[in-house]
Hints:
Mean pLDDT of chain A: 96
Radius of gyration of chain A: 19 Å
Distance between the termini of chain A: 46 Å
Helix content of chain A: 10-25%
CATH superfamily of the largest domain in chain A: D-amino Acid Aminotransferase, subunit A, domain 2
Number of domains of chain A: 2
Number of strands of chain A: 14
Oligomer: homodimer
Structural class of chain A: alpha+beta
Strand content of chain A: 25-35%
Largest sheet of chain A: 9 strands, mixed
Low-confidence stretches of chain A: none
CATH class of the largest domain in chain A: Alpha Beta
Amino acid sequence: MSLPQVPFDDRGLAYGDGLFETVLVRYGEPLLWEYHMQRLRRGCQVLDMAEPSRESLDATLEEVQGELAVLKLVVTRGSGGRGYARPAIAQPRLLSHWTPFSTSPQRWREGVRVRVCHLRLGRQPRLAGIKHLNRLENVLARGEWDRVDIDEGLMADQNGQMIEATSMNLFWERNGSFFTSELDTCGVAGTLREALLADNRVSIAPLDVADIGGVDSLWLGNSIQGLWPVAELLDADNVPCRRWPSAQRNRELQTAAHQLLGYPVIATDV
Amino acid sequence: MSLPQVPFDDRGLAYGDGLFETVLVRYGEPLLWEYHMQRLRRGCQVLDMAEPSRESLDATLEEVQGELAVLKLVVTRGSGGRGYARPAIAQPRLLSHWTPFSTSPQRWREGVRVRVCHLRLGRQPRLAGIKHLNRLENVLARGEWDRVDIDEGLMADQNGQMIEATSMNLFWERNGSFFTSELDTCGVAGTLREALLADNRVSIAPLDVADIGGVDSLWLGNSIQGLWPVAELLDADNVPCRRWPSAQRNRELQTAAHQLLGYPVIATDV
Lengths: 270, 270
């Protein structure tokens, strides 16, 4: 399977002027496809960019094979001249590529170890929520650790509000209810998060970085991996600062998430 | 002249994980080349990316033809797998392409009309100053107007401090001295600005967006265009709010800038 290419003057390459989606596909059937299409549409509106036709987007699914795969879509504004001004007639470019995927059942069951990142996300309301191609903050944050036993890094914004992990949304539990961060100044509004919000499984609430160790349980999720409980939290210097034991974990949100993705319901350890 | 291409898995395309430079070249000789090389080196350090060899960078000049040209260099981290983690062995990709360039003598002489942009730059100290490929803020700001008689847009940060124009640095005069903005939380540190700072032609000072109409003269500059005086300032709703008449304009900084770029000294109108 040869990789698609873009030319030097593609604005996705030049300025990150475009969007992407990563979609879980099971036996050719995409999960949360309408949520992905909705976010892509919203991104095109925010960037004032023509949308690829629904037919061309649907057609990217036809090539995907195997039991479980990740389909990545990239939509750029297309080719343009030198300078930031948008080309008068821009022809958006839709690229797609898929790779086989395997789940991490042990992470679903036993949970993950995560750290708080030094990097604080800049606040830019005009770009918040959409999955655009300007992702250097995520790259820098992910570059803060290389220990293979650390699975993700949590990012706060410049005001110390918890936003997300480098490639997953953040969920937490207090008194039996589940919450997720407001994403109106930065962060990516994941499709799994959107679906859980639409189903009233979670509510939006603030969470200060100083209070993160005080929640009853902490979870990371996206539309590819499902929902991981956080077993251990490290601070930015990789010093352990909180453990959430696996026994009696409330798996209500994980169950709802996994039903949306066709993933198994994980039994609570007793 | 065919355009270079990058594959789908190039991290410059995927995440804007890379840097660029635009260099003025006259009869094959680059202007401010060492400043461009220095900024590229600093960018590679900030992104923790291997630098292309100096030989490969110098070699991009060989293809450039004509009296005046703009050489654009793009350096990406190279190809990588899915996800934000940097590839264990990344092979940076250096791409270059040049186009003929013509100066705007009327803008040098009579000045330009600029507006203040609605968009406020997000503050991200970790990425400030370098010329990385995450430029959606510039694209959105430039998209705020399409009147051809508006030449540039000025951007403040989220705190209301003036930072830069969409593709030029900002300079202003008070009591015969010239100033430029601090760029430690956002903005691109232009090579012309660096050279003028190194030559003590300008000093760094703050400028609140509310005070911009109160400066003695306002200038925009970069290493391609030289220095433009601002003749008229419009607010974000395109309402004129200040004119700086051309007569008796202090052209000291413009003269210094143009000497660095081999551009003509512009006579003061009397």
